[in-house]
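Everyone, describe these structure tokens:
***
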Amino acid sequence: MTFSSTEIWFIIAVLGVGTYLIRFSFLGLIGDRPMHPFVLRLLRFTPVAVLPGMVAPLVLWPAATGGQPDLIRILAALATVGVGLWTRNVLWAIAAGVVTLYAGMGITAP
């Protein structure tokens, strides 16, 4: 499917306006009002939810293997979660995942 230049710019403009309206609906309309403590407590978990949401597709459907799950990446993710739960330290968890991933890649490399 091919699009003309005008159609592409129209799509970009519509997506830009849509993105602006989505953000404005939260920041512009309710940004100056005090929020309920329950909502503020839930918003604190946003960064904690975003990182796994970005990493999970890379673990379960990596492009490097054609979209097939890879045992090394799954083991690295499990090591990250395990060390994170054990130590309660993000840096140690990330380090454990990186070491597991690169050790596994080094073992299977020809």
